[in-house]
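=== Discrete structure encoding ===
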Amino acid sequence: MRWNGQVKSLARTVGAVALVLAAGAHRLARADELAASVPAGGLPPSPAIVDAGPGDSQRILGLTLQAGPFAGFGAGLQVGTPDVGVRAAVGWTPLLLVSTGSSDLHFYSTLQVSPDLYVRLLSLRTTTHLGAQMGYRYSSALGHGLAVGGYLQFALYRAVDGLVTGGLLLYPDGEAHLRSAEHLSSSTGFSFPGPNASLGISLGLAFFP
């Protein structure tokens, strides 16, 4: 009985060792198969890397589409590097003003030209940039003006960026120009801040070839 128990114990040990050796042999054989399937030049590059679109260094010229009072509802161009450059847009802009006394809401349709110089101040990631911008404004209803603000530009997909711009719009002679353009009487007044100053934001996309 004593020898019989020892034989059974030895048999169980040998069986366990055999299972471990068999598993190891199977893994080695599988590794050899995988190694044989790899081309001599190594693995091909990831499709995402192959078709990643232009990098920051190649985003020199782009087409922009924007919507909002800061840059107007229209199209334009972006020329420059991620560090510094120029954006220029032409578009339609609605102008809503409240008159004093009656508190009536007045709507005016204007054409706006918006060239801006932008400078990157901060990069949150390699594809997300924050910066400042300043530019000239011409409005068919308000005349000559100035824009001061900032922007956020971030990669959406391959050669397409999201673009958010916004800030302060100043038209020193805006009220006088509006009275002349719309033939308003001298008694017509507007609630603060009136046509001379406003805050605006525009949302858009930038496309790079």
Notes: The radius of gyration is 33 Å. The helical segments are 2-37, 47-50, 174-182.
